[in-house]
Specification:
By secondary structure, the protein is mostly helical. It contains 14 helices and eight strands. Strand 2 and strand 3 (about 265-270) form a beta hairpin.
């Protein structure tokens, strides 16, 4: 029992202690909560005060920024307004200057207009004065004309009375007399002008041609039909001939040239009418001798190589000749054919040298006369290009040359000048006449061409004899180395129509009886002369 009470007392004491501890903890928590709430309220109040201060500062900053921006905007506006005022002032000054200049110009024009008005007034007064004088003079002239008519009528009546002729008959006699006098004066004037023109033109032409010939110092060398190849020793002749002549036959077959191996010491002769083939044979033989290997296969190989090299050399020679003349736009095929003319001759004259010389002469004469020197030079240089291919094609060298040049775009002025260089057609231009003259000058230089004098004279004599054999022919003259014959006929025996048929008959007979290169121009001249003697 006592133990139970003691335990109960202990339990109550523990409960009381626990209750006291609980009350103390509760009181402590309340106090701590009150303190925490107080601090929170103080913190919140502090935060509110800080926020209010920061807001105030922001408001002040915003007001200060707004004031600053307002001041800047106001400054910019003032500055822009000042610039606008300056620009407006500048424009006003410029406009004022323009107006002042315009006013000055108008003032000067007004002064000029005033002067012109004054001058016009003076001219009007002068015209009025002249008109009055003209009226007076017209009246005076009319009176004089009336008096003249009266005198003429009186004179006519007197002449009719004295001569027994009417006015129409006398007028007809007078007109015939005046016409005859006018015809005589006109004939004398024409004769005098023709003589002066002939003398002046002849002297001028002689001066130009002589000057061109002197300035073109061309060298002339007559081409032959043989070439000589020098041999280091006569022992090589046997090697060139070969076993049973096989080497010499191979050479002749490959080159188309005859080889003459005779007793001439240290040389063999190449014979052929084609200089190109002779040059190929000469170079091929020289190379074979230098190489030492001489047999048919090697001969064919060397000949082909030499031909290729000479073709290239030909093209370069054509280009070089054109370049010297200032012709830089010729077609490459034209260069090649002009180079081939280096191995073509006409009466022994080298055709490429002849073409170059003709071009020089034509260019000089064209420049002296103020003509188109480029057309004259180009046509003169190309005038014989057909001789490079006339052996391969049908037709004369002129025909095939013109066809070739047309295909390769040569100008029509050049084509026409070339077509007339043998006077086959009428001269289309003065440049064509220059080309023909230069061609004749180059061919007629002493030593330029080779011809046998006896055969040449016989051919000309026979040409003139054919013409003289026709009835009505007075005289016949062979001109231009036999390329033209001019025939003078008797006007009493041959009419104009008969002269046309006579030229055709003579040309047909020349074709049948003579052999000649190129063409021969037949010109029949019929003239009527009126002769009178002044006594």
């Amino acid at each position: 029992m006592g133990t139970y009470v003691l335990a109960l007392i202990t339990l109550l004491a523990s409960a009381a202690i626990a209750a006291g501890v609980l009350l103390y903890w509760i009181a402590a928590r309340k106090r701590l909560a009150a303190e925490t709430v107080g601090r929170a309220e103080e913190r919140a109040a502090q935060l509110v005060r800080d926020a209010e201060g920061q807001a105030a500062r922001l408001i002040k900053d915003a007001e200060r920024d707004a004031d600053t921006r307002r001041k800047e905007a106001l400054f910019e506006a003032k500055q822009q307004s000042h610039e606008l005022l300056l620009e407006a002032d500048r424009q006003v000054r410029e406009r004022r200057q323009q107006l002042e200049q315009l006013e000055h110009v108008l003032s000067r024009k007004e002064d000029k207009l005033t002067e012109r008005l004054a001058l016009a007034d003076a001219q009007d007064k002068e015209l009025a004065s002249r008109e009055r004088r003209s009226v007076q003079q017209e009246r005076l002239v009319q009176a004089q004309v009336t008096r003249y008519d009266e005198l003429v009528r009186d004179q006519q009546r007197e002449l009719q009375r004295v001569a027994g002729l009417t006015a129409d008959e006398a007028k007809e006699i007078l007109l015939k007399q005046i016409e005859n006098d006018a015809r005589r004066d006109a004939a004398n004037l024409v004769k005098r002008l023709e003589a002066e023109a002939r003398e002046t033109a002849g002297a001028r032409a002689r001066h130009i041609v002589t000057d061109a010939i002197q300035r073109s110092a061309a060298e002339h060398a007559i081409e032959t039909t043989v070439s000589v190849v020098d041999l280091p020793s006569d022992d090589l002749k046997g090697r060139i001939i070969g076993r049973e002549g096989r080497n010499i036959r191979a050479l002749e077959t490959a080159t188309g040239v005859d080889l003459i191996v005779d007793d001439t010491p240290g040389a063999i002769i190449l014979s052929g009418f084609d200089p190109y083939r002779r040059e190929v044979a000469r170079q091929a033989i020289e190379r074979l001798i230098a190489d030492g290997r001489i047999h048919p296969a090697r001969i064919e190989e060397v000949v082909e190589k030499v031909q290729a090299e000479i073709e290239e050399s030909i093209r370069k020679d054509g280009e070089a000749a054109a370049f010297e003349l200032g012709l830089h736009d010729l077609h490459p095929e034209v260069h090649r054919l002009m180079g081939r003319l280096k191995f073509r001759t006409s009466y022994g004259q080298n055709v490429l040298n002849h073409s170059t010389e003709v071009a020089y002469l034509a260019g000089m004469m064209a420049r002296e006369l103020g003509l188109d020197a480029h057309v004259a030079t180009r046509a003169a240089f190309l005038h014989d290009i057909g001789k490079a291919i006339d052996r391969e094609m049908q037709g004369t060298h002129l025909e095939v040359g013109l066809d070739f040049l047309r295909k390769h775009g040569e100008p029509e002025a050049v084509i026409n000048a070339i077509a007339a260089h043998h006077m086959d057609i009428d001269w289309p231009s003065l440049e064509a006449m220059i080309v023909q003259s230069a061609d004749a000058i180059s061919a007629a230089r002493p030593g330029a061409r080779r011809d046998i004098l006896e055969s040449y004279v016989k051919r000309l004599e026979k040409l003139e004899g054919i013409a003289d054999s026709f009835k009505g022919v007075s005289k016949a003259f062979a001109l231009q180395a036999g390329r033209e014959i001019r025939i003078l006929v008797e006007s009493e025996r041959v009419t104009d129509e008969e002269a046309v048929w006579l030229s055709k008959d003579i040309a047909r007979r020349i074709e049948n009886e003579l052999e000649y290169p190129g063409q021969i121009k037949v010109t029949v001249i019929r003239e009527t002369r009126a002769v009178e003697y002044a006594k």
